[in-house]
Write a structure and sequence with these properties.
This protein is an alpha/beta fold. The protein is built from nine helices and nine strands.
């Protein structure tokens, strides 16, 4: 799968309710090359949603993990959709975009590896079109052991003393760093290790320009249309 020099990654599905089929469909229609989603392992099923608590994206109060299966199935996003299952999103995206799956809950890796292996086998898809990432590097390492064909991304919230060294043990494809904590040294270190530098969450032209100047390889954004337009303008002016 070839890709642009600077990757536009639709954060949490892109524009629309977060992690919704509507947002993903909109991103696919735009022609984005990569889409990021979040998954939880709940009741032996992988669900595509972000928050650990109800009340912001999903109605209600309390912890997501405390919901019964019936309660989970009844929760609706602001557009009336129910929470997507990962298998539904895999069907929707197909081979039309790179899919970055971020692990949000404990005990995801085994079920995620089984789901991706089965979907790839049943649909004849290349496992390299998926990237699994997490702040939980233990689960990313578990994915390396369970399904090494799937590429891995190491998420960072800050700047470690050893920069991107964690990528070595994870055999990571990409390092995902915070927009507020991405010094040039971190980008250079990632590249020295042969790792892509992707930055979250960049939503403004001045941020995109700064990342291009840093030499980053891509950005997670809530506004994929605007980022694609920005990159097209940069290409015209080059």
């Amino acid at each position: 799968m070839t890709r642009s020099p600077f990757l536009c990654i639709a954060h949490r599905g892109g524009e629309g309710p977060e992690n919704s089929r509507e947002a993903i469909e909109h991103s696919l229609a735009l022609g984005v090359e990569a889409i990021e989603i979040d998954v939880w392992n709940l009741h032996d099923e992988l669900w595509v949603t972000h928050d650990r608590r109800l009340g912001r994206q999903l109605p209600g109060i309390g912890m997501l993990q405390q919901q019964t299966l019936d309660q989970l199935q009844g929760l609706q996003l602001e557009n009336g959709e129910t929470i997507p299952r990962l298998r539904e999103v895999l069907e929707q995206v197909g081979d039309k975009a790179l899919l970055n799956i971020e692990i949000k809950s404990p005990d995801c890796a085994i079920r995620l590896s089984e789901t991706l292996r089965a979907h790839s086998r049943d649909h004849g898809l290349d496992l390299e079109q998926y990237i699994v990432s997490s702040f939980d590097h233990w689960q990313v390492y578990q994915m390396l052991e369970l399904l090494p064909e799937v590429r891995r991304g190491a998420l960072l919230a800050g700047v470690p003393l050893d920069y991107g060294r964690c990528c070595d043990e994870l055999k990571a494809y990409s390092l995902h760093s915070n927009i507020g904590f991405t010094p040039r040294e971190l980008v250079v270190d990632a590249h020295t290790r042969g790792v892509q530098s992707w930055v979250y969450t960049a939503n403004h032209p001045d941020e995109w320009l700064a990342l291009l100047e840093l030499g980053a390889d891509g950005a997670f954004t809530d506004h994929p249309r605007a980022l694609l337009d920005f990159l097209a303008q940069q290409a015209r002016e080059a």
